[in-house]
């Protein structure tokens, strides 16, 4: 399988600290690939290296078969980049943001205008074409940034936290547009710390923590490997959940005590819930749910705040 | 709908190919955001040297009378001051674009971050912005030359010779301004730039020939870029033109090349971490 992005032992060091600590990545054509991880895990640094705006400190990096150290402009010509913070041109109108950006790629004016109209349609901003950027909502700005990233018809689109800070409606619209891009065969590479986003969009993903890759696979495979099929969430009325933990011993593969509830990782949730009843522990509430990527994520990267 | 075109041919090794085109696209962006309000900014930069010319050149000049040039020829004070104001106009046009505006785009609008995600390289942004600063500088110079000819402060032929010199001055100051912009940390530092620019305007042989100062000060004055610029256009305006002016041209070319190289490198360091 052709590898569009190929990294081996990739390292990014800044003065005094290592942001990316030797990662191996392969992204294949047409797939949606995710970098998951808490803040400071090294996701954005990795994205900037792939975007050829940050030279790797060490290791091998090939994008579309080319070396970013040597062929930066040539690679960037085929990338679309949607950065974490919108950096739209506030002195230009919505449409001009696209046409002007197209010119940076050397796209002829006539083609640029035509493509801008198509893309505005695609991200549902046609009605705001002549508006300035400033009054747009966060979701509109993000959609415009995504449209801008598509203006050169890229082979790979890099999206750094594409829906962070957006309201639910805006997030779903962005997801839906990204999904359509994927259907058209565009390779998507995204970072996120939203588990639902990763589950929705990614064919394959890596979980990063402290600059390293701690797990890799499809969302399904990761859940199977690092979590159980189901999770039972038990809330006890007592002040301390701790006291109940030992009474639940042997009920699941793993048990996690949180300040307000206890999580039981089990293969069969209903069976475990019945067993809890049988031991007459009488929790205030019982919730049986499917295991999610969030469980994997928290298991792998811990619950401690990293910021 | 988004479809896929064949990727256009891009030269293999990093080369100068496409550099002009990519730099031009940066200039084009500035032209695209020319709005009615921007003309106010542009006009203000032109008015300043004209005011100096009338208030000091013509006004104070009436009290001073004629001045001897290095060649011995006597000229009216307004004739003496006008070329200096021309050089200063070229400087102002180039600096206002490459300091204040350039810094704002780099630090606050995060404009260049977006541009650098495209094939455009830092040095090409620098070139494109410089070219834009030139458009502005050239407009100031051309208008001012028109006034000089209309007031009979120089001949039309000499004005034509001065024009390319003002372009060179603009380029040199533009590159210099850009370098300064990559060094300064905050808006507060701009006060220093404004002060420096004002000191240059007052002491670069503009209103008073440098021979009026003690030798040490004179040396100091003669190495400033505005003095070299004034010397160049004044010689072209009033004569005689000699080897000193060749030195002026070389000096300004050196400022241009060094400034642009340093600015491009520093931009790369700041933006491509």
Automatic annotation (TrEMBL), chain A:
Name this polypeptide is given: ABC transporter
Membrane topology: Peripheral membrane protein
Protein's organism: Paractinoplanes durhamensis
Gene3D superfamilies assigned: P-loop containing nucleotide triphosphate hydrolases
Localization per Swiss-Prot or TrEMBL: Cell membrane
Keywords, ordered alphabetically: Antibiotic resistance, ATP-binding, Nucleotide-binding, Transport
Presence of the UniProt keyword Lyase in the record: no
Sequence similarity: Belongs to the ABC transporter superfamily.
Chief localisation class: membrane
SUPFAM superfamilies named among the record's database cross-references: P-loop containing nucleoside triphosphate hydrolases (SSF52540)
InterPro entries listed in its UniProt record: AAA+_ATPase, ABC_transporter-like_ATP-bd, ABC_transporter-like_CS, ABC_transporter_ATP-binding, P-loop_NTPase
Keyword Transport: yes
Record Pfam families: ABC_tran (PF00005)
Domain ABC transporter, chain residue ranges per copy: 5-235
TrEMBL record, chain B:
Membrane-spanning ranges: 38-64, 84-104, 125-150, 156-180, 192-221, 241-263
Domain ABC transmembrane type-2: 40-270
Subcellular location: Cell membrane; Membrane
Bilayer topology: Multi-pass membrane protein
Key words, A-Z: Antibiotic resistance, Cell membrane, Membrane, Transmembrane, Transmembrane helix, Transport
Origin superkingdom: Bacteria
Family to which this protein belongs: Belongs to the ABC-2 integral membrane protein family.
PANTHER family: NODULATION PROTEIN J (PTHR43229)
Protein name per Swiss-Prot or TrEMBL: Transport permease protein
Source organism: Paractinoplanes durhamensis
């Amino acid at each position: 399988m052709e590898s569009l992005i190929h990294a081996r032992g990739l390292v990014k060091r800044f003065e005094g600290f290592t942001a990316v600590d030797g990662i191996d990545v392969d992204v294949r054509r047409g797939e949606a690939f995710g970098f998951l991880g808490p803040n400071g895990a090294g996701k954005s640094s990795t994205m900037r290296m792939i975007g050829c705006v940050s030279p790797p400190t060490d290791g091998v990096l090939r994008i579309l078969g080319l070396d970013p150290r040597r062929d930066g402009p040539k690679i960037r010509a085929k990338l679309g980049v949607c950065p974490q913070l919108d950096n739209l041109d506030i002195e230009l109108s919505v449409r001009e943001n696209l046409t002007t950006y197209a010119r940076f790629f050397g796209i002829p004016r006539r083609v640029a205008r035509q493509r801008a109209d198509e893309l505005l349609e695609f991200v549902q901003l046609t009605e705001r074409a002549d508006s300035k950027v400033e009054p747009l909502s966060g979701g509109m700005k993000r959609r415009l940034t995504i449209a801008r990233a598509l203006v050169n018809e890229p082979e790979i689109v890099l999206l750094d936290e594409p829906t962070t800070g957006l309201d639910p409606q805006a997030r779903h619209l962005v997801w839906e547009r990204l999904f359509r891009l994927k259907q058209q065969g565009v390779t998507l590479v995204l970072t996120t710390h939203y588990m639902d986003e990763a589950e929705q969009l990614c064919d394959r993903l890596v979980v990063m923590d402290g600059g390293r890759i701690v797990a890799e696979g499809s969302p399904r495979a990761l859940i199977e490997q690092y979590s159980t099929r189901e999770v039972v969430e038990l809330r006890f009325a007592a002040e301390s959940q701790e006291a109940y933990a030992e009474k639940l011993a042997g009920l699941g593969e793993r048990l996690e005590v949180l300040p307000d509830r206890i999580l039981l990782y089990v293969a069969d949730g209903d069976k475990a819930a019945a067993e809890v009843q049988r031991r007459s522990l009488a929790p205030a509430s019982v919730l049986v749910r499917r295991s999610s990527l969030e469980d994997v994520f928290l298991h792998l990267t811990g619950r401690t705040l990293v910021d | 709908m988004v479809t896929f075109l064949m990727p256009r041919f891009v030269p293999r090794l990093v080369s100068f190919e496409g550099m002009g085109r990519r730099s031009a696209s940066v200039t084009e962006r500035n032209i695209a955001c020319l709005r009615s309000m921007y003309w106010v900014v542009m006009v203000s930069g032109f008015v300043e040297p004209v005011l100096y010319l009338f208030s000091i050149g013509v006004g104070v000049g009436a009290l001073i009378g004629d001045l001897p040039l290095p060649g011995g020829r006597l000229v009216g004070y307004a004739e003496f001051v006008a070329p200096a104001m021309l050089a200063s106009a070229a400087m102002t046009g180039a600096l206002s674009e490459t300091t204040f505006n350039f810094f704002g785009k780099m630090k606050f609008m995060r404009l260049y971050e977006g541009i650098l995600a495209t094939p455009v390289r830092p040095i090409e942004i620098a070139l494109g912005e410089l070219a834009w600063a030139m458009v502005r500088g050239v407009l100031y110079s051309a208008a001012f030359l028109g006034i000089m000819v209309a007031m009979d402060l120089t001949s039309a032929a000499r004005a034509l010779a001065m024009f390319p010199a003002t372009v060179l001055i603009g380029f040199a100051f533009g590159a210099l301004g850009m370098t300064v912009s990559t060094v300064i940390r905050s808006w507060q530092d701009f006060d220093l730039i404004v002060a420096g620019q004002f000191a240059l305007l007052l002491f670069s042989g503009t209103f008073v020939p440098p021979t009026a100062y003690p030798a040490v000060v004179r040396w100091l004055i003669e190495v400033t870029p505005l003095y070299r610029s004034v010397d160049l256009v004044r010689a072209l305006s009033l004569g005689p033109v000699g080897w000193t002016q060749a030195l002026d041209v070389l000096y300004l070319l050196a400022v241009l090349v060094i400034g642009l190289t340093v600015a491009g490198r520093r931009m790369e360091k700041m933006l491509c971490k």
